[in-house]
Amino acid sequence: MAAARDEQILEGFLCPICKADLKSATQLTSHFESLHQQEQDVLKSLKDIFGKAKKIILNNDESDLKETFDRALKFSYQERAYYPEEVQTVGLSRSSTDYFKAVRSARRERYATETNKLLIRLDKLVCNMPPEPSQRKQHEQEVVPWLDGGLVKLCPNCAKAFNLTRRKHHCRLCGSILCHDCSMFLDLNIARSMVDPSVAAPSAPEHEVTEKNGLRLCEHCYNLIDLRKQVQESRNSKSIVVTAYEQMRSLMDQAEPAVAMYEKMCQSLFDGETTYNLSDVNAMRGRIGKLAEGIDLLSKQIAGAPSAPGSRGAKLQASIRAAAAHYIKENLLSLRKLPTETQIDEVRQQRYERAQKQIEKERMQAERDRNSTPGTSSNRGNESLENSANHDDDNPILEQMNIIRGYIKEARKELKFEEVAILEANLKELKKEYQFQMLSNKMN
Predict the structure, then answer these.
(1) What is the pLDDT of residues 211-258, one digit of tens each?
(2) Which end of the chain is more exposed for a tag (fewer CB within 10 A), N or C?
(3) What is the 3-state secondary structure (H, E, C) of the chain?
């Protein structure tokens, strides 16, 4: 028993001959083949033992894996059988929309109320501001009470102490105290435009805003006023489509009287009148063509503006484009055809001949009336002709006619044909008056 206890027990991959521990089956096999070649039966038995052991180990692993897979598959089948197409019910829910709206409305009301108070104070400061700079500080203190400077030792914004170099200043809208570095200045012109809609807001300040030309404000008041200013600008601003549509409507409003004037000028040419000439009508036609081109470009710009396909805005833009194209085709491109120079000359010649016949008829009637009266009418007629010839250069009617002709020439250059028509009518009246004056002189 004692000898058996004292005998050492060895474990591992031991060589059966030399009892050496080879640590692995491969090393044991190579060791036995190299050192104990004479013991082939023992080597064969070792190989058989290792092969059987390997097979047993591999078979056990495969069986374990197969058993595990079968178990998981069975569990999944059980889960599916346990929940056959079960629909999950909706649990308890609660909407927080009303709470969010209440919080938002409270904050909006607080900021809106505070901003309105600041605007009321701003109105009183700007509208009743005295012209003298010496009285301005007293006026600002009367509108907004200022905080006592002895109660504040540090700037509430930057937390720096006030001293001789860092003086105390007051916000003109809330009366709080702050230093110069933390002050912000609002331009007086911008302030006037905010409280008075009739005053146009400046696009950009022409000079640096200081205490002399602005109001000193704290950061909180300045941000509220600036936010209100941005809201006003966004409400007054117009989109690209609206701006283009207004411009297109303005061109259409200009085109309507231009087309009417063109028709009037054409009719005047067909009637043989000398108020307008062919170059005037061609200039008016070119002006109408430019208006049509502008309307077409603006309508294309409106139709090409970005919008969601199939939306109401896209349909509206397409309708505006179609209406503009129809307006151009029906009103601006279907103008009356102009007469040729030959036709104009023929009509004017006929009109001139009719006028000459009428003048000759009136002259013969005047001579018959003059011959029927007794006395030395012929001598008086000769004297009147001499007097009229002597006084033609000093006749105010002729001077006025020359002035009107100059006005007509300037109006033609500027394509103001309505003024040309009015001036031509005045010139005709003066011509008739001059002819009547000459005829009366002949009769006298």
Answers:
(1) 788 889 999 999 999 988 888 888 777 788 888 999 999 999 998 888
(2) N
(3) CHHHHHCCCCCCCECCCCCCECCCHHHHHHHHHHHCCCCHHHHHHHHHHHHHHHHHHHHHHHHHHHHHHHHHHHHHHHHHHHCCCCCCCCCCCCCCHHHHHHHHHHHHHHHHHHHHHHHHHHHHHHHCCCCCHHHHHHHHHHHCCCCCHHHCCECCCCCCECCCCCCCEECCCCCCEECCCCCEEEEHHHHHHHHCCCCCCCCCCCCCCCCCCEEEECHHHHHHHHHHHHHHHHHHCCCHHHHHHHHHHHHHHHHHHHHHHHHHHHHHHHCCCCCCCHHHHHHHHHHHHHHHHHHHHHHHHHHCCCCCCCCHHHHHHHHHHHHHHHHHHHHHCCCCCCCCHHHHHHHHHHHHHHHHHHHHHHHHHHHHHHHHCCCCHHHHHHHHHHHHHHHCCCCHHHHHHHHHHHHHHHHHHCCCHHHHHHHHHHHHHHHHHHHHHHHHHHHC
